Amino acid sequence: MEAWAPFYQLDAFTEEPFRGNPAAICILPTNLSETLYLSISGEMNLSETAFMEKKGEGVYQLRWFTPLREVPLCGHATLAAAHLLYYHLGFTGDRIQFNTQAGKLFARKKEDAILMNFPSNPPHPVDPYPGIIQALGIKEWLDIQYSPRNQKLLIRLDSLEDVKEVKPDFKAILEAENPLGWRGVIVTSEGCEEFDFVSRYFASYMGVNEDPVTGSNHTVLAPYWGKILGKSQMRAYQASKRGGVIGVEEDGDRVNLIGHSVLVLEGKSRYA
Prior knowledge:
Low-confidence stretches: none
Distance between the termini: 7 Å
Structural class: alpha+beta
CATH superfamily of the largest domain: Diaminopimelate Epimerase, Chain A, domain 1
Order of helices and strands: EEHEEEHEEEEHEEHHEEHEEEE
């Protein structure tokens, strides 16, 4: 017997369609086979496909998959899921709780945007690894740090132009020594008048060469730049081709991420 589940595609961290980061949200039980989730994610062929199941009033189980594997934390697909619930599926509660591999994540409306509350993942200084620096085509850098809880390597550059000019060799990234086991590499710099800091993100290990806008990275970037800039509230820009804007607020040992989403597609996905 054929079985179908509703799915939606939204562009996250943007107010314009076809910008920000696209995510698919499938309303589907979250205890099915990993092979099935990977097959659907591969068919969607987006950086993340989220699978969401209602568990109680305002409580949802959430899992995220790239076309290659499951990931423990994804900000933009969580933002898309919360936007979908509030603005298209009729959720009227004050707060949504998502149960995930990363623990409990919370989302609520903030004016016309969505505010998500995530655990903070501060980085610490590490020695430079020449292989990954060369693979990214970086000649000069200011700082290198690593977030073990989020498995992200952070490389700070001098300027926005330096960040934009990074030209990775994705094959070399996969071949470079990776002793810490990072899942992706953030390159970042201080921003300009409009933004406090900017970044780009490369995750070839997860099947995503460059992610357009990465919410989970900002649980690393917020404590990093907050300490440097002496700010607890900042506005960030991910300088990918599609681009995206993220508001960040440090909240003790957690981080608030604030952004918009736009629904662009809806349909049904076959899963049996």
